[in-house]
Amino acid sequence: MLHALLQGKLDPTVAEPQRREDALTSTVLGTLVLVEAWELLGEWLQLPASGGAPDAENECWFWPHLPGGVEPDVVLRLGGTVVVVEAKYRSGRNDLALDEEYEDKPVDQILRQYTGVSDLRDQRSAHPDTLERAVQKCQLRQVFLVDARKIRTARHEYHESRERLPAAARESFVLVTWQELYGRLLTPELSRRRWAADLLTYLGECGLASFQGIKRDAAEEDQLTRLSEWRPVPTGLTVPSFDTAAARLGASSQA
């Protein structure tokens, strides 16, 4: 939430769906950055095994202003990779209307972000030197972060954008869900940490929890044994046959 507040993203004049989306992005990714969970970020965002290592050079920029009026939600440097994250919650890709004057101007949001990052080295005065140096030194990766409940629409938008990217950039564009992070936070080594437990609760409140299946250790071994040995115990009561029950019912109705 801190980064969204600092960037003015939670101002009452901002539309509510956008405020909720920015609050989610800031709360979750901001927490992971502040606790320096670089490995977790790298795994979740599908980086190579070496990406996001604790001893690597890691950095983060929230809503940086890039050339062409582009403003991705988050840009991360995880080791030797710059990751541009476009995070969605209850909205889809934000494309521009076709510009009749400049027909070659990119309107696809993901393509605009690719162009904005690629052009950083030519716009030195307008951007942080640390971000520019990261772009010059690192490989580029783009992430479309979505709610798994809207995965059909998200997949359609993802494939549209992927086809519009230069061929060399398509393999570096991935689709990731918030629910995948929820599943990773449930691992024993993470779930016992206070910040991870709080994130789990927050994601659950946002409806971004994921079903993890029925745990195999839901019952102790002795309980399973007793359950497997269960048998009906005779009570000494006799159950009347159908004919007897029918006759009794007929007799009672005539009385």
Question: Short description, anyone?
Answer:
By secondary structure, this protein is an alpha/beta fold.
Residue stretches low in confidence (pLDDT < 50, at least 5 long) are 96-103
Describe the global form. Answer: elongated
- What structural class do the secondary elements suggest? alpha/beta
The tally of helices reads 11
Task: Please report the first level of CATH classification, the CATH class of one domain.
Answer: Alpha Beta
Describe the largest sheet. Answer: 5 strands, mixed
Strand order of the largest sheet: 1-2-3-4-5
Q: Name the CATH architecture of one domain.
A: 3-Layer(aba) Sandwich
Total E-strand runs: 5
Helix content: 40-55%
Q: Which whole number gives the mean pLDDT? A: 80
Proportion of residues in β-strands: 5-15%
Secondary-structure element order, N to C = HHHEEEHHEHEHHHHH
Q: Specify Rg, calculated over alpha carbons.
A: 28 Å
User: Which topology of one domain does CATH recognise?
Assistant: Trna Endonuclease, Chain: A, domain 1
Distance N to C terminus: 76 Å
Task: Describe this protein's structure.
With 255 residues, this protein is α/β, with parallel strands linked by helices. It has a domain at 35-205: Trna Endonuclease, Chain: A, domain 1 (3-Layer(aba) Sandwich). The chain is 43% helix and 12% strand. It is built from 11 helices and 5 strands. The chain has helices at 2-6, 16-34, 38-44, 109-118, 129-137, 151-164, 178-185, 188-191, 194-205, 221-228, 242-254; strands spanning 58-62, 74-78, 81-87, 139-146, 173-177. It has a 5-stranded mixed beta sheet with strand order 1-2-3-4-5, sandwiched between helices. Strand 4, helix 6 and strand 5 (173-177) form a beta-alpha-beta unit. It is elongated, with a radius of gyration of 28 Å. The termini are far apart. Residues 96-103 have low confidence and may be disordered.
